[in-house]
Amino acid sequence: MLASTAPISYRQLPLRLYQIGPKFRDELKSRFGLMRAKEFLMKDMYSFDVSAEAAAESYATVTAAYERFFRQLEVPFVQVEAATGMMGGSQSHEYHFISPVGEDTLLQCSNCSYAGNVEVFGSDTDAPSACPKCQSAQLSRVRGVEVAHTFLLGDKYSKPLGATFLNTTGKPKTLIMGCFGIGITRVVAAALEVLSTEQELRWPKLLAPYDVCIIGPKAGSKEQAPAERIEHELLQQLMQICGAEQLLHDERKELTIGKRLLDAKRLGHPLTIVVGAKATQAEAPKLELHTSGGEKQELDVAQVLQLVATHEQHKQQLVEGTEQTDTKRSQRVGHVH
Ligand SMILES: [Zn+2]
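Above: query sequence and zinc ion SMILES. Below: predicted holo structure tokens.
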């Protein structure tokens, strides 16, 4: 497309074009649901620059954004040096979620910052036992699920295709390219795979469809009327804290609380609040709060509202990048287990 456009000016660079769309692959070993499917959603971007130095700058900018994105998901990940493979180019990195179901073997040095895919060395058996950077023997192997890949392509495609720009003296020059991809459906599937258990789905906070699920009393129970009053008051207060779109009100009152709670765990809401018989007791009324991956807590209304507010605050910090925790964990993959 760039080659068939009249040569663009150096003033229009850097140029970064991206698209989000379905990709199709004749996958012979499709499995793990969305993890390895014949159709998947992908974000890919292509960068165009005036020089190798400028292209390296674009590469650093985009990989820094990828780093922020994966940190926001709070799933242990690692950026590794990767084989340039079919795409070619001079430099390439992959982003992996660490998981035993991962199909890639990664090397990581706990002495320096080195991390690499064994593919870089041709095969697992050719991979070194000492760190290729610092020669330390503190090299561990982990399995990873590839969720993103970046390449510094240079002029590999722009040169043969004649994709040029006009430089400061008006002379045509070859564009220098990079390419960047995130497997969107795979990010969702792999994040759930890494965080969840057999009994309970667990979402990254920023990806959970709802922050809070509210389960009220069963229809026909003796606490129904007083508990429903508390339930509706609670709904109003929660709406102020996190907005209606973050609340799931399970109104299937014909079902027992236990049945609805089981469904809530399967859907993996970060916070599930039960308004049951204990909410109506005269002395010290309590709500049940179930946190994903945590224990059941019996709390009063003020405490529950405080915990929801803390959750919303944490999400906001993740979005703003002011969240400090978990960065070390993500970088030190060897110590994840
Ligand atoms: Zn090392």
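Residues 326-337 have pLDDT under 50 and may be disordered.
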